[in-house]
Amino acid sequence: MAEARVPQQTRSRRTREKLLTACVEVVMRAGYSHAGLPAICAAAGVSRGAQLHHFPTKIEMLCAAVEYLMERRLAVVRGMLRDRTEMPPVDVFVDALWAIYTGDAFYVWNELCTVARTDEPLREKLAEVNDRFYAEVHALLADVLPDRSPRAIRGAGRYLTSLMNGLAINRVLDDDDESSQAALDVLRQGLTMYLHSQGDQR
Description:
By secondary structure, this protein is mainly alpha-helical. The protein has 2 domains: about 1-55, Arc Repressor Mutant, subunit A (Orthogonal Bundle), CATH 1.10.10; about 65-200, Orthogonal Bundle (Tetracycline Repressor, domain 2), CATH 1.10.357. It is about 80% helix and about 0% strand. α1 (about 10-30) packs across α4, α4 (about 60-85) packs antiparallel against α5 and α5 (about 90-100) packs across α8. It is globular.
């Protein structure tokens, strides 16, 4: 009996995911400047024609790859918040979000942000991805802390992501996870105190 034909939509999705995964791997291994489209296609086992169909430019592929990884990591955050009910929600949220900042998505993102300082088209696309990421973080925090005001949620979200961004950059240079965990303990305590002081302001 002949093998069932894979639907075109499924094949297209798989090709796209192969390209995005390979893109991240090549950038992580070789850096942005050496992450050429031929190398990415070779790593993905995908033709240049298929690549052009999905991502006409390198910038579009890189931005899509970071967003793809972030969406997967945020799915993990949602799962942890749903399953780890024995821990305070703030502690679970900090642990889950830190996993994003110590994974491939952050380090590719950080490299692209450096390039974007002098590359306006890249900066604009990264800004769009960044806005969506913050919106998702704020939405998750609002679900965890439904009795806090929108202003408190926005402040907590920016506080969390800004501190984790700094910790993750330091980690590139010193790889000092013990100090990072100590800083995260301070973050948890400070965030808990701040949110407690805000009370129910809706």
